[in-house]
Design brief:
Chains A, B: This is Flavin monoamine oxidase family protein. The structure is a homodimer of 534-residue chains. Chain A is α+β, with helices and mostly antiparallel strands and 534 residues long. Chain A is 31% helix and 20% strand. In chain A, helix 4 runs parallel beside helix 9, helix 4 packs parallel to helix 17 and helix 6 packs antiparallel against helix 7.
Chain lengths: 534, 534
């Protein structure tokens, strides 16, 4: 993690609210500053509860009520169920998965502002409105393996995708391909460092061998000229071709008009390059075949639909010496459920509003963590013009417009229709979009995309569906970012009586399903240990 | 393309024999030196012959005999067939596709040294023994679209894959992940350039704005410290984690022990980094679902199997004023075929041995192009230990051992078994392996792989199949690299009487199917224009 703020919107936003989307880096930084717990508290290898834990000890599994059927809640039921716990999930929405939500033709949703959308996507087209990518190291993939969910590559990076920085002076139609931007930045960086090295400016830091090896690296990395040419960067095939290499004497035409060093750095294209180095974002990344909701669907099947109450909005939690009572409404009726334990796997800021007897500290902690606004739109097109016209088969175009990111689809290559994520934005940019009607969101996203891709971005559009997570009932946020050292965070890591908490917001992988999985595992482990000790 | 030789084996080998595998770069260099034809000779947009070309003009389609059923030969028949040409392909092997060859369980092959192998791969496991990846810009993808061949991502790059340079002092078990190598190299490069910039060493090249923007880029790119810390690189989460971020207070543990600048550059890891910038190698790349041979199979179906003579080895070509006669042997019998035109789409060095009356210049030219030895081995494992133990889901590990490259599979993720390409090597390294028996090739590849992955690389192995293209009948080489400015190359771009030539070796995309496709298109265009003019 770069201790100097970058200008990439999501990452800088996350940092501004006190957490890195990536892999606990801020925590590590805080550790270096003496602000964090002194030693890394690594989770021991996870061991799922087993039926034999009970049969061998004479103890019996208990009844557990789980508030929320997102990934954390589902995983809690799934893991406890392995040992025979009697789990019931109360889920306020009409489907499990929480923010793991795949929109297909027919999906209907009404937001808190009264906007109702019904997706008219064609058969086989979908939008992963929430989580959409999985890094190789994440336990999410272990669950895909265990549950039999097939995966395919998520295209998080593409040399053929574009960068469009209009705040740095780029004009419509003049977006730059990643490959070109990299070639120019790396070329000039190499030229500058080679010159400085050769002139002896770094002799105190470099041995003769170091210098020789460094110059050799820069020649390859930056595709620069030799010493006689002053190590000049003058372009390279890495920039791409205006006419591709062909038959006979057609060597193709390398993209020319290399901009000056000043123009390259003032275009600010380099600020996106470190994204692909992130531990959580580096390729290769993956997605379930057919939609991210294959994961909650598989979990739901494994748990058993009879253990899940849909449309069940929690209205009260009462912890007692012998158990927990939860009240909820379902189809207009007030219902009540008793259990030995409760796991609250709802968004913390919503749990804070549920009447309970866990104490004011718990309420305050639950309501204290910053919530990030997040939006996405899926634009279905009648043709895959980005493949035929631009030779872009997936990946992400970065912009400094408030759409922030455009995602080309990672599935359906070479097909007839396809779905582009027309914006994926956070913070104030997400608020700008969510303040609009769905039709106006589409219009704004298309008007911005046209600057990169021209009129087809408008004329080929078939239909769209947008989501504003912060305006979505029973979620009301993209993700919640706890200050890890706060007393409130530490409080919620422990059970309040017989009530436990779980969710990605109780992990160092906020906004990732990995965080929900590992938090659920930690809660399951703690609860099971207590039962076994009791 | 970098004008300074890099140390990556395949690329430097290609350069040493006079051609870049990538996109005509050498040609461009030669152009700059005044050695090449003065202007780029871009191929006009391809227009396939149509039936209406004949019906509207009163001309009739002709009979064409095509020598070789590889991609160039198949494409020639496919494209001419669109207008009703009567094409016959003579293919010496028992299958079409040429070097586009997918090995599955039951595939049998005997090489020129008498080694017979029969693949014992399990169901669903395959090895793309020849071409295995497709860049987004290549017409290969257009053919996949036209022919209805589904594609998926080929994983040409993975931050989790390894680099192992034993010639630079790395020892078994101490391979470095790409993500770690990049973090350290980019970190020190950024530190050095930031220092030089800050000290004014580059003030003649940089304005104050340039300096400020460059420092901002380096901070993000190299994850270095600020000015007060001397812009020091001291590690970053980009290096990876020894313990992944988890629940609660488990921030994970960033991989530590950052090596010194001298150690990083002497490890020579950076020489591999520019590979991913290549116009022909940059992600995203693709492969057909189920094996590369889905392309020749689809072409074969489109052409019609009745137009293809298998086991037909050409023994003579006689060009005459009114047609071409071709003799061949098939199932022990000498056969003869007459046609209006002939397209020779065989490897040139093999065509050079076929008796013909096209002249000594043609023979000399055909036999004059350097041929590259190329080898590959597919190692099928009983478990996908690279996924479970190393969290590697595809991509390439680079080494300076003579196995050169290890490829993790781009298909079958999360499954039970899987196939690793245990070596993909060229030049002298390929010769070292091809001199061994198949069993000894396996043993050598495994012994080298164990240095990176430990004993499982041996103990989990189920079976293997290796290919040495330079020792494969009717092919006898990985690819053939013409000097583009040679009179011989120019001669073979033109027909010799009624005999045309086609193949990737007549393009600026040698060793790529793209080259075979565009060459075939060029030949089809020339032949059809002649027929239409005649």
């Amino acid at each position: 993690m770069n201790p100097v703020p970058t200008q990439v919107s999501r990452r800088s936003f996350l940092r501004s609210v006190g957490v890195s989307g990536g892999a606990g880096a801020l925590f590590a930084t805080m550790g270096a500053l003496g602000l964090a717990p002194t030693a890394a508290q690594a989770t021991p290898a996870y061991r799922a509860p087993r039926p034999s834990d009970f049969t061998l000890t004479g103890r019996s599994a208990r009844k557990v009520v789980i508030l929320g059927g997102g990934i954390a809640g589902l995983t809690t039921a799934y893991e406890l169920g392995k040992a025979g716990y009697d789990c019931t999930i109360l889920e306020a929405r009409d489907r499990t998965g929480g923010r793991n939500f795949t929109v297909r033709g027919g999906t209907e949703q009404t937001d808190l502002d009264g906007n109702t959308q019904r997706a008219r996507f064609s058969n086989g087209t979908y939008l992963n409105a929430g989580p959409a990518r999985i890094a190789q190291w994440m336990v999410t993939l272990d669950y895909c393996r265990e549950l039999g969910v097939p995966v395919e590559v998520f295209t998080n990076q593409n040399a053929s995708a574009f960068i469009y920085n209009e705040q740095s002076g780029m004009t419509p139609g003049n977006a730059v391909r990643y490959r070109t931007a990299k070639a120019d930045v790396y070329g000039y960086v190499s030229e500058l460092l080679a010159k400085a090295t050769d002139q002896g400016a770094l002799d105190t830091a470099l041995s003769a061998d170091d210098k020789s090896r460094l110059l050799s690296f820069l020649a390859s990395f930056g595709a620069i000229g030799n010493k006689a040419s002053g190590y000049a960067y003058t372009g390279t095939e890495h920039r791409g071709f205006t006419s591709d290499p062909g038959a006979g004497n057609d060597a193709g035409t390398i993209l020319g008009s290399v901009p000056s060093l000043s123009d390259v750095f003032s275009s600010n294209v380099g600020k996106y390059f470190s994204f692909e180095f992130g531990y959580d974002q580096a390729m290769l990344m993956f997605q379930p075949v057919g939609g991210m909701d294959q994961i909650p669907q598989a979990l739901t099947r494994a748990i058993g639909a009879h253990r899940i109450e849909l449309g069940a909005a929690v209205t009260g939690v009462t912890d007692g010496p012998n158990g927990v009572q939860v009240t909820y409404t379902q189809r207009g009726k007030v219902r009540r459920i008793s259990a030995d334990y409760c796991v609250a796997a709802m968004p913390p800021h919503l749990m804070a509003r549920v009447p309970h007897n866990l104490g004011a500290d718990v309420t305050a902690a639950l309501g204290s963590f910053p919530v990030t606004p997040v939006g996405k739109i899926g634009l279905e097109y009648r043709s895959r013009w980005w493949e035929t016209d631009y030779k872009i088969f997936g990946g992400i175009t970065e912009t400094d417009m408030d759409l922030q990111h455009i995602w080309y689809p990672s599935y359906g290559h070479l097909g007839e229709r396809g779905l582009i994520v027309g914006y994926y934005n956070t913070g104030s940019a997400a608020n700008v979009y969510s303040a609009l009607s769905p039709a106006d969101r589409e219009a704004r996203a298309v008007a911005q995309g046209v600057k990169i891709h021209g009129d087809k971005y408008r004329t080929e559009l078939a239909t769209s569906f947008s989501i504003a997570w912060h305006r979505t009932p029973y979620l009301e946020g993209g993700w919640t970012s706890p200050p890890y050292t706060s007393p409130g965070y530490q409080l919620l890591l422990r059970p309040s009586g017989r009530v436990y908490f779980a969710g990605d917001w109780l992990s160092h992988a906020v906004a990732w399903q990995h965080g929900a999985f590992v938090s659920a595992r930690a809660t399951v482990t703690a609860l099971h240990q207590r039962v076994m000790a009791g």
